[in-house]
Amino acid sequence: MDKLLIEGGGKLNGTMRASGAKNSALPILASSLLLEGKLSLSNVPHLKDVTTMIEVLGSMGAEISLDDDMNFEIDTSNLNNHIARYELVKTMRASVLVLGPLLAKFGQAEVALPGGCAIGSRPVNLHLESMKKLGAEVVTEGGYIKAKAVNGLKGAEILFDTISVTGTENVLMAAVLAEGKTIIKNAAREPEVSDLIECLCQMGARISGAGTKELLIEGVHELNPTSFKIIPDRIETATYLTAVAMTGGNITIKDSRPDTMESVLDKLREAGAEITTESDSINLKMDSSLKSVDISTAPYPLFPTDMQAQFISLNTIAKGQAKVVETIFENRFMHVQELIRMGGDISLAGNTAIITGNSDALHSAPVMATDLRASASLVLAGLVAKGVTKIDRIYHIDRGYERIEEKLNALGAKIERVSG
Ligand code: EPU
């Protein structure tokens, strides 16, 4: 099993390019199931989760090709089954994103029920209830969601009592080919949802309200081939900016979208970073002392849960005491125990972490990655810790950060990937 060895202590300086967004690529890959013909995608990040989604589509008979510039072409015209198997779904919960498009296009779907998860129970009840509202018969049997819509799906009003990103995406992909109008109320407003909407509209779907809490979808009979470029990954970008806020230095991230990450940029400024933006690039300079910042996670446009772990790391070495409240996932604090092993002064009570910062707090220790963003927080801690930090189980990082050690080493970090 691969591990990362990180020698902490240096500043990070230089320019990098943001990768395409994992959480946009996954639903957009699933949307290829809706098409008559091929979907061509560029800026797809090279990540384990993307490979898993490709495998899910491939296992149903989709034909996928990749050119030298890493552009994907997905052709789902010769699908031979409508099953997302447990062996794949158990490695990536987002596989459930094929449920909506399979039902809409083929009137049937079998998707393994995703099991437990390191960050919370993460049920899929909202996905299932909304498919039922659209007229599908849905049962769970033998560990599988079995859904049918023999006479096709029918538009409906769907109110999410909890905002769900992939729930909204599943309904969108089901409703675009349903008969009549669908209204999604309390929809997720994440930029990745808007990116999916843009791609679907390019295929000929009729959707209005992108970026708002209410989406209106008017069903069409078929969708057409298109080429689409995936939006830059705001969480990857924010993670690297946070790294430089912690180490000190100067970084420019090109091909990024600062307008999709204002809540994080505001918090980095509050922590003492100097940030300037252009429409597609961000510069962060850090030459003052780091100040602690309180955060509370919430759906977009507020502070993302996917940046909570990284900000706990930041607060361990900042001046002052910070309160970090996690409101989205009930168990997303697995990184805290690992950061405490590295010297962080953190106490947990329910969904709140209190961090007392100290610029010399972190020292190296062998630590274990438990989920994707938790792993990122350990990398950031390793970059500032005294000594060499060893992070085990880094396959979690490879699910969501493209070539992380290469990208950080290009800025001056000293990270080595070792196997065994
Ligand atoms: N929820 C339910 N029932 C459902 C669906 C969700 O109770 O049927 C609850 C969840 O348990 C959670 C809340 O609703 O408490 C929000 O979860 P959401 O459905 O929005 O999460 P998700 O769609 O499963 C996506 C991202 C996550 C990100 C969350 C929140 C993808 C593929 N995943 O997950 O990304 O943390 O939204 O923003 O888009 C990551 O990239 O590391 C990651 C975990």
Folded structure, characterized:
- The chain has 420 residues and is α/β, with parallel strands linked by helices.
- It is 30% helix and 26% strand.
- It contains 14 helices and 24 strands.
- A hairpin with a 2-residue loop joins strand 20 (345-349) and strand 21 (352-357).
- The chain starts with a strand and ends with a strand.
- The protein binds uridine-diphosphate-2(N-acetylglucosaminyl) butyric acid (EPU).
Helix content: 25-40%
| Biggest beta-sheet profile | 4 strands, mixed
- What is the structural class? alpha/beta
Which descriptor suits the 3D outline? Answer: elongated
What is the number of beta strands? 24
Bound molecules: uridine-diphosphate-2(N-acetylglucosaminyl) butyric acid
CA gyration radius, whole angstroms: 21 Å
The largest sheet has its strands arranged as 22-23-1-24
Terminus-to-terminus distance: 5 Å
- Percentage of residues in strands: 25-35%
Figure out the total of helices: 14
- Kindly report the average pLDDT value: 96
Q: List the uncertain runs.
A: none
Task: Kindly summarize this structure in a few lines.
The protein is of the alpha/beta class.
